[in-house]
């Protein structure tokens, strides 16, 4: 495997903050050897969320997702490390907490809340391009 030092955007979503899991999520990131470069807590505006989730506009879960994401404060983190973009998504686990594997953040802490699949605790950028775009948005 080639070395590729990257930066990614991690968000602790409103459910993660409300359930006091921000520290546990950061602990797992640091335990893996990734470095916290910057961190901020904020109440995201609809404009910020619409830009962040532009790729999902028009999908059935788009509106509920934005409503959920603006329902409370989130913690945004700039995280650096070797192949951290893919690596954090492995730490996070599958999008649906019901099927996310044990040992992952979503697998260990995600709940099956019926229709509320959007409550899956964390966001992680999915590519180098997404990471650059999202970090510029959240750490302008
Ligand atoms: P991610 O990259 O694993 O976060 O997943 P996506 O980029 O595909 O989706 C963005 C977010 O939208 C997810 O993290 C979920 O919060 C939410 N989401 C995705 N798919 C669904 C769905 O089928 N139903 C609902 N309610 N929410 C979804
Ligand atoms: Mg995504």
Brief overview:
The protein has 140 residues and is of the alpha+beta class. The chain is 39% helix and 20% strand.
Task: Give a written overview of the molecule.
The chain is α+β, with helices and mostly antiparallel strands and 140 residues long. The protein has a single domain (5-138), classed as Nucleoside diphosphate kinase-like domain (Alpha-Beta Plaits), CATH 3.30.70.141. The protein contains seven helices and four strands. The protein has helices at 14-18, 22-31, 46-52, 62-69, 84-92, 105-109, 128-138; strands spanning 5-12, 35-42, 74-82, 122-124. It has a four-stranded antiparallel sheet, sandwiched between helices. The radius of gyration is 14 Å and the shape is globular. The termini are far apart. 34% of the residues are buried. The model has no long low-confidence stretch (mean pLDDT 95). The protein binds guanosine-5'-diphosphate (GDP) and magnesium ion. It comes from Agromyces marinus.
Tertiary shape: globular
What strand order characterises the main sheet? 2-3-1-4
The oligomeric state of the chains shown is single chain
What is the percentage of strand-forming residues? 15-25%
What is the straight-line distance between the termini? Answer: 32 Å
Q: What is bound: which ligands?
A: guanosine-5'-diphosphate, magnesium ion
Which CATH class applies here?
Alpha Beta
CATH superfamily: Nucleoside diphosphate kinase-like domain
Enzyme class: transferase
Active site: 123 (pros-phosphohistidine intermediate)
Keywords: ATP-binding, Kinase, Nucleotide metabolism, Nucleotide-binding, Transferase
Binding site for ATP: 13, 61, 89, 95, 106, 120
